[in-house]
Design goal:
heterodimer, A: 349 residues, mainly alpha, 2 domains, two-stranded antiparallel ribbon, 2 strands, 1% strand, B: mainly alpha, Four Helix Bundle (Hemerythrin (Met), subunit A), 6 helices, globular
């Protein structure tokens, strides 16, 4: 593998993935407003462009042109650093997500930025560092609503990270690897039947993961850190203009990453639900179809996110903590024990 | 390439550690500690211990330091005042620390081979299978002893933090106590 080819293709891949991710972020916001609008029996944005399709562009320009206020009492270095941490962590974790089949061009993977054998751990590590964005923003704003939001967020993230990590153990046990490509390959043998959620009997882990991930991304019904009825806007109360937009982008980028991980771990990643029933369509189409499957599954998860937001009310704080520690964590541990026993006795290595 | 990265992140690590001591605000110190932890993770990565590097970031930077910042934020700790420190620290502390460092360095340099070590390089650590073999077979005793140690720490924390509640007032209806 030539070094310069590697550099060129990597830079191209990063540019393309970032462009797609940021566009997806903008249009997820639009999708959310549209779908929540229809759930609440109204239209949602429909004025800018056909069906309101240019609304994200208008929002972007609005946020970009707004005055960037810097309140007097904030602790400046951390106040500026916090949104950067949040956004950087949210965008970094997409780097290890594989989007399509293992196709190499000049010895470089085409459909992922980095294929490393601890991919799953890297995603967990990067997202766990992302907490600081929220925690520091709340503290440095010098505002009681921000501080309360940040405290709630830190406590919530630390509590639910345990259940989240433990729910993934069953999947790792089944695949015997932390490499995301291997995990997908294990599920790709018999189409949808061998996906972890069905054939791997990880449906319990799937729901634990989904619940914990909603809490990790501060989404309804776990959006206590930014509960607007009690905390004005939570940790980003004092932020305006692009700094606010960075928090906003990082939240939606995190949603997309979580959807990608759920797709990879439980719904067979880019593998087709029909398995080998579909004939081969030639090398180019065979490379493109997996990406389409992947995007369709991620879209499904994003839709569920919005659907849940339009449906469920917010948890109370003690309910949130009780649910995380007394319900999700024991079920996740039980799932690990049962999966290990099953793998040990039924399918010895 | 590895050497350059080692010097960069070794520098970050030392600078973070110094900054940790020199900063007067607890939250800046906590952030410097995060820098130290994360650059240590990069150093592990350069040594080829990928799993250890990822776990270092998840456990130390991601979980333990979040609790540190959480407590600092919760107590709203202010800038600390400079003191000259106790005389005992100067007389006993610094020579003691220097002696301990010298002894440990001497042992590691002289008898590093006989202390026992685990090869965590990617060539031997292909998957979770090999890793769990190291953890749960070769290093089973240290692993279990560490878990018992953590259990003791948890019990101690619970015992220290438990409120000695006065007998509950029966006249007040349950669920409406003022917090």
């Amino acid at each position: 593998m030539n070094f310069w080819w590697f550099l060129l293709i990597s830079v191209l891949k990063i540019a393309v993935v970032l462009f797609i991710l940021l566009t997806a972020v903008a249009y997820t916001v639009l999708l959310e407003r549209k779908v929540v609008g229809r759930i609440q029996n109204r239209w949602g944005p429909s004025r800018v462009g056909p069906f309101g399709l240019l609304q994200p562009l208008a929002d972007g320009i609005k946020l970009f042109l707004k005055e960037d206020l810097l309140p007097t009492a904030v602790y400046k270095p951390l106040y500026i650093l916090a949104p950067c941490i949040a956004l950087a962590c949210a965008l970094t974790s997409i780097a290890v997500v594989p989007f399509g089949a293992d196709i190499k061009f000049k010895g470089v993977d085409l459909f992922d930025i980095a294929n490393i054998n601890i991919g799953l751990l890297v995603i967990l590590a990067v997202t766990s560092v992302g907490v600081y964005g929220i925690a520091l923003s709340g503290w440095s704003s010098n505002n009681k609503y921000s501080l309360l939001g940040a405290l709630r967020s830190s406590a919530q993230l630390v509590s639910y990270e345990l259940a989240l990590g433990l729910s993934l153990v069953g999947v790792v046990l089944r695949a015997g690897s932390l490499n995301l490509r291997t995990i997908v390959d294990v599920q790709a043998t018999h189409g949808a039947l061998s996906w972890n959620i069905f054939g791997g009997f990880q449906i319990v882990a799937f729901f634990i993961y989904l619940t914990a991930a909603y809490a990790e991304t501060n989404r309804t019904p776990f959006d206590l850190p930014e509960a607007e009825s009690e905390l004005t806007a939570g940790y980003h109360t004092e932020y305006s203009s692009m700094k606010f937009a960075m928090f906003f982008m990082s939240e939606y980028a995190n949603m997309i990453t979580v959807s990608c991980v759920a797709t990879l771990l439980f719904l067979g990643g880019w593998s087709s639900p029909l398995g080998h029933l579909l004939p081969s369509f030639g090398p180019i189409l065979d490379a493109i179809f997996p990406v389409l499957w992947f995007v369709a599954k991620v879209f499904f998860f994003l839709f569920v996110y919005i659907w849940v937001r339009g449906t469920l009310p917010r948890f109370r704080y003690d309910q949130l903590m009780g649910f995380g520690w007394k319900v999700l964590l024991p079920i996740a541990i039980a799932n690990i024990v049962v999966t290990s026993l099953w793998l040990g006795f039924v399918k010895p290595l | 390439m590895h050497l350059v990265l080692f010097f960069i992140f070794g520098g970050f690590c030392v600078a973070g550690a110094l900054n940790l001591l020199l900063q007067r605000h607890p939250i800046n110190s906590a952030l410097s500690l995060i820098v130290v932890m994360t650059s240590l993770a990069v150093l592990y990565l350069l040594l080829g211990a990928e799993f250890l590097a990822a776990v270092q970031v998840i456990v130390y930077s991601g979980a333990i330091m979040v609790l540190f910042t959480f407590v600092i934020m919760l107590l709203n700790a202010q800038r600390e005042e400079r003191t000259h420190g106790s005389r005992a620290a100067y007389i006993l502390g610094f020579p003691g620390a220097a002696a301990l460092f010298a002894i440990l360095a001497f042992i590691f340099v002289q008898n590093g081979k006989s202390l026992g070590f685990v090869d965590l390089s990617p060539s031997t650590m292909v998957g979770t299978h090999q890793l769990s073999e190291v953890l749960f077979r070769n290093l089973l005793l240290p692993f279990e002893v560490t878990s018992v140690l953590i259990l003791i720490a948890i019990l101690g924390a619970v015992a220290l933090a438990r409120h000695h509640e006065p007998p509950r007032n029966q006249s007040r209806p349950a669920g409406k106590e003022q917090r």
